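Narrative of accomplishments. A recurring question from our advisory board has been how the design workflow behaves on a single, concrete structure rather than in aggregate. To address it, we present the structure tokens for one chain from the evaluation set, followed by the sequence designed for it. No filtering or post-editing was applied between the two.
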């Protein structure tokens, strides 16, 4: 037997004159007791929140969400002077009757006629409320000032909402109803079963409805909304009246259980996207797709958990009375605003009409827009906004100019390193009035619906136009926070603003819409 415990016992007891057998017995007892104590040791806990362990928590909390508000960031914010709407007048033309040239000797000239117009834009408000319980404040002490954190996040959320309203807000454009859906059957290419009838309904989506739609969560349904005060208000869905239901039987032809149905419907002014509902029973259609142009190919039946068409309103709820008209709605109101809108043709159902390369390093539809703006108004865009879908699709068309393209590529590398990929950052406007207006930046807009390209003009090339900002946010009240009196053990706050997008020259804007993905 070895070890300090046995040695100590042996030494001590022998010193007392005990026999060797008694000493060995006492040593074994001491060793057993020592082994019992040794099992009561400390180990690292297997849980980060239990045991005698520190909790390595970094403060403050990380803000891991995007705050992308390019239009809000750039638009001037000016103060209003009361009232319920912004009002302004404009001279929109001089010598509008195009009087002939020349004047005879000794006579006065003919009387020219100028055109004028009155404009209005009603103020609207928006905001969000937040609650912080007293217990949440207690629990966060030493880690985060949770009331300040809530206020900062609330302000950012309101800014994100305002950005969407600047682009997508719609109070005046009524989608009405999607027109008759045309359909045709193919006995190959899909996976629809033999001998079944497919029922189809299509719904138009405004920008607001599109932004709130997905295949998993469905489309907005509108209806009752409970406010922080406990009051209940009604909100619109942002959807059009659904199309009339149509049906198509698959039959038994072709390869069997491999059918597909191509569908298309008339373009709906104001719709940035469409929701397609299909099903095998009348009135039981479920959300099958959200598409960016007015056609689709049905190859499979939707999930049995997808949204039912019956969840959506049966009437048109596209106009939001609590929003103002954003950029897109101003352009959809082209009959009044004189904005220029290019609608891509329906084309082959399911394929549609994508942007078209002109073979010379350009896009045909871009050239059409820029020529129109120059010929009609003697101006051009200063920026082009599109979605990541159009940025992806259009770049190869611009680069596919073959021998007629006017591009040059310069690869600057170190040693043998070479970076792949090409970025198309600008588009040349051959109708630009000055060098600074000839190279137009291409920019991805985080809220731009796929299938739409927006041409914006930030500067009017008219001397003495009296227009400092082509577009601006006119505010009765800019961002402000209200700390409401607590009615229970929580801190209620709200962040709000009240104003409108005021656009002095909506005729300077243009867009291409109903662009197919391709």
């Amino acid at each position: 037997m070895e070890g300090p415990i046995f040695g100590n016992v042996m030494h001590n007891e022998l010193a007392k004159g005990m026999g060797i057998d008694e000493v060995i017995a006492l040593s074994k007892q001491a060793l057993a007791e020592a082994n019992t104590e040794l099992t009561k040791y400390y180990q690292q806990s297997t849980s980060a929140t239990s045991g005698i362990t520190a909790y390595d928590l970094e403060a403050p909390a990380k803000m891991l969400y995007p705050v992308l508000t390019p239009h809000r960031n750039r638009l001037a914010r000016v103060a209003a002077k009361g009232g319920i709407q912004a009002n302004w007048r404009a001279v929109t033309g001089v010598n509008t009757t195009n009087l002939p040239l020349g004047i005879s000797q000794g006579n006065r000239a003919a009387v020219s006629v100028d055109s004028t117009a009155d404009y209005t834009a009603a103020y609207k408000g928006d905001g969000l409320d937040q609650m912080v319980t007293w217990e949440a404040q207690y629990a966060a002490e030493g880690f985060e000032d949770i009331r300040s954190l809530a206020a900062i996040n609330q302000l950012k959320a309101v800014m994100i909402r305002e950005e969407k309203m600047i682009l997508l807000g719609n109070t005046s454009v009524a989608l009405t109803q999607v027109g008759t859906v045309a359909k045709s059957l193919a006995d190959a290419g899909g996976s629809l079963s033999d001998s079944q009838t497919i029922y189809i309904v299509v719904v138009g989506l405004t920008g607001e409805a599109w932004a709130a739609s997905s295949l998993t969560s469905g489309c907005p349904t509108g209806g009752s909304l409970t406010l922080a005060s406990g009051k209940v208000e009604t909100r619109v869905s942002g959807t059009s009246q659904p199309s009339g239901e149509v049906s198509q039987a698959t039959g038994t032809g072709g390869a069997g259980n491999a059918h597909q149905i191509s569908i298309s419907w008339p373009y709906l002014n104001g719709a940035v996207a469409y929701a397609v509902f299909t099903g095998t029973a009348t009135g039981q259609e479920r959300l099958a797709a959200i598409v960016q142009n007015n056609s689709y190919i049905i190859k499979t039946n939707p999930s049995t958990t997808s949204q039912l068409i019956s969840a959506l309103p049966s009437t048109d709820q596209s106009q939001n009375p609590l929003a103002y008209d954003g950029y897109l709605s101003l352009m959809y109101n082209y009959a009044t605003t004189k904005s220029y809108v290019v609608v891509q043709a329906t084309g082959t159902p399911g394929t549609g009409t994508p942007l078209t390369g002109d073979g010379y390093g350009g896009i045909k539809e871009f050239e059409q827009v820029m020529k129109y703006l120059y010929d009609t108004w003697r101006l051009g865009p200063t920026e082009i906004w599109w979605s990541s879908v159009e940025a992806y699709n259009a770049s190869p068309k611009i680069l596919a100019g073959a021998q007629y393209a006017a591009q040059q590529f310069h690869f600057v590398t170190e040693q043998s390193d070479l970076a792949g990929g090409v970025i198309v950052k600008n588009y040349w406007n051959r109708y630009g009035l000055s060098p600074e207006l000839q190279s137009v930046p291409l920019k991805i807009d985080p809220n731009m619906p796929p299938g739409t390209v927006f041409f914006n003009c930030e500067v009017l090339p008219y001397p003495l136009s009296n227009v400092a900002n082509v577009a601006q946010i006119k505010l009765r009240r800019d961002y402000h926070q209200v700390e409401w009196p607590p009615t229970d053990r929580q801190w209620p706050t709200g962040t709000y603003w009240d104003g409108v997008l005021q656009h002095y020259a909506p005729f300077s804007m243009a867009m291409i819409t109903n662009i197919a993905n391709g």
